[in-house]
Amino acid sequence: MPNAFMTTGAEVSAIVPKQWSEKYYDVLLAELPMNSIISRDYEGEIQNLGDTVNIPTVPEFNEGTELPEADANDAEAVTVTTQPLVINKRIVKDFIVTNKALLQSIPFVDKLKDLAIYSINKKIHSLILSLTVPSAAAPDHTITAVTPGTFALADILALKELLDNQNVPMADRHFGLGAGPLNDVFNITGFTSSDFVASGSPLQSGQLPAQLVGFMPHFSTLFGSTVYAFHSSYFTMAAQQGMAVKEYDLGVEGRRASRVNCDTLIGLKQLSNLRVATCTV
């Protein structure tokens, strides 16, 4: 008679204990750089009361006049304009967990809260990109790559020149790059060669230098194949209500469960279509 084996898959499966780790294997989340880069200069003015911040702009005077010694000069007037930053977007994410689930499972609500907050921030990031509309007047601030499918030095310089011609400040310029354009940059010798890079080794670290022709590079898969070149002041965001996370007992409804509501109340506004340019790769 052959030997009979008692295996964990059959004969002793009923008494094999199972362990559940309290260390979660996190899902991979896209970076959300735009949320922290754009201007928040007007946020403090809306947090107390009201739903609109009217942002004034005073235009420059015409070039000064060379005045002969005995002549009088005519006074010049400029017209002040305003742009409204309206607090009109409430971004939310809620979830409900039953009391039984809370009692019989390992702790997981804090992880759900973190992911709910991330989903709100991801929505804000997508709204910023969708509301970004570069100038279409000559020179068009929406360009395409010289070589389709490849982001090259010529494209970087074209984006830089568009902002240079509008007198956009050199400080606080940024690049938003998706995976394709980001890795194309590693084919540009000037950005990776030790002859040009002051410190570090991009080809070894896989990370770009701190600046590319004066722009700070930021990576996110959410940029896709479009490269965004901009000054942080081109767009502004103000939160009248910061991120709120509130937990409610649903017992009053006769339900043995808890509801967690996460939300924020914000306003978004593109202030200039000349301080941003895009390149479709």
Account of the protein in words:
The protein has 281 residues and is α+β, with helices and mostly antiparallel strands. Helix content is 21%, strand content 27%. The chain is built from 7 helices and 10 strands. The strands form 3 sheets. Strands 4-10-7-5-6 form a 5-stranded mixed beta sheet. Strands 3-9-8 form a 3-stranded antiparallel beta sheet. Strands 1-2 form a two-stranded antiparallel sheet. Strand 8 and strand 9 (257-270) form a beta hairpin. It is flat. The mean pLDDT is 90.
Short description:
This protein is α+β, with helices and mostly antiparallel strands. It has helices at residues 34-37, 99-104, 109-130, 153-164, 179-184, 189-192, 202-205; strands spanning 52-57, 81-86, 89-98, 142-144, 173-177, 215-219, 226-231, 235-249, 257-270, 276-280. Strands 4-10-7-5-6 form a five-stranded mixed beta sheet. A three-stranded antiparallel beta sheet has the order 3-9-8.
Low-confidence stretches: none
Number of strands: 10
Structural class of the secondary structure composition? Answer: alpha+beta
Record the strand order, biggest sheet. Answer: 4-10-7-5-6
- The total count of helices amounts to 7
C-alpha-based Rg, rounded:
27 Å
Along the chain, the helix and strand elements come as: HEEEHHEHEHHHEEEEE
Task: Give the N-to-C terminal Cα separation.
Answer: 72 Å
List keywords for this structure.
single chain, 281 residues, alpha+beta, three-stranded antiparallel sheet, 21% helix, 27% strand, flat
How are the secondary structure elements laid out?
Layout lengths: L33 H4 L14 E6 L23 E6 L2 E10 H6 L4 H22 L11 E3 L8 H12 L8 E5 L1 H6 L4 H4 L9 H4 L9 E5 L6 E6 L3 E15 L7 E14 L5 E5 L1
